[in-house]
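Continuing from yesterday's entry. The apo prediction looked reasonable, so today I'm repeating it with zinc ion included to see how the binding region is handled. Same sequence as before; SMILES copied from the compound registry.
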Amino acid sequence: MDHRAWVAKAPKQPLVLEAVDLGLFGPEEVEVAVEHCGVCHSDLSVLNNDWGISQYPAILGHEVVGRVTAMGPNAKGLKVGQRVGVGWDSGSCMHCHQCMSGRHHLCPEVQPTIIGHRGGFATHIRAQWAWAIPLPEKLNVAEAGPLLCRGVTVFAPLAMYGKPTDRVGIIGIGGLGHMAVKFAAAYGCDVTAFTSSEGKVDEMKRFGANHVVSSRDSAAIRKLGGSIDLLISTVNVKLDWDAMIGTLAPNGRLHVVGAVLEPIPVAAFSPSCSSAASRVRRQARLWRSRRCWRLLHGTASSHKTSTFQ
Ligand SMILES: [Zn+2]
Ligand SMILES: [Zn+2]
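Holo prediction written out below.
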């Protein structure tokens, strides 16, 4: 078998296309011929060793879509020829408490796809069978890659805590926020998009937002005080957090999925957000669970929630 991949030999170096030896094919592994692979900012972070955990040579790419071409003798639940997706993780122990509770992504032995494992910027990728997620055939696979990373990141809090009757706020309208607005609208939620860019108002309405509010306008944010059931922040910049948290309804939730670089202050007894501390829940790696992926792909294909349009 001719396996080729774009290989990063060292931090911040251009990728080199070359033949690679994928080694022994494990009994629980499946091999997937890659059809499409998204490019995520985390690929760049691993290429540049921004987190200090990269291993070289590295093969990046963790939004992988393709078809199963081979299955190890102990691989289950898939067929050769089936279309699957592989995301941030591609293996776990399958016997620890987390794995046995359906939280495989929290397994202490979880194997990230692009750290110490070969990713999807390649002709083929291998993954443990449980981490090759079956994709519905009617999903537009050319656009499905981002669902496997940023898509599941924002879908997870909606799937686990959102209800169609909820008022949902999405902070930040970049790659994650766009998808969050579309998912929340598809759920039937009343959606408020918070953006710092005035140019995105029409686009957000087209994506299904009922309201668009400037994330820099503290007065406008404060007018929403006590009204939002689920607030999902996708930004990594400083905000008027006091006003933002004050928009939460009693028992509302704030989920932070953006890589915030500065601490988020929570003023538990400020007038604008009384009992805010009890309302703020940390997402704690909620995303990536296999269960959420399965739900996500069903939702994305039945609502035709393509990634960017
Ligand atoms: Zn485990
Ligand atoms: Zn990613």
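Comparison notes:
- The mean pLDDT is 88.
- Residues 40, 42, 62, 149 surround zinc ion (ligand 2) (CB under 6 Å).
Will overlay with the apo model tomorrow.
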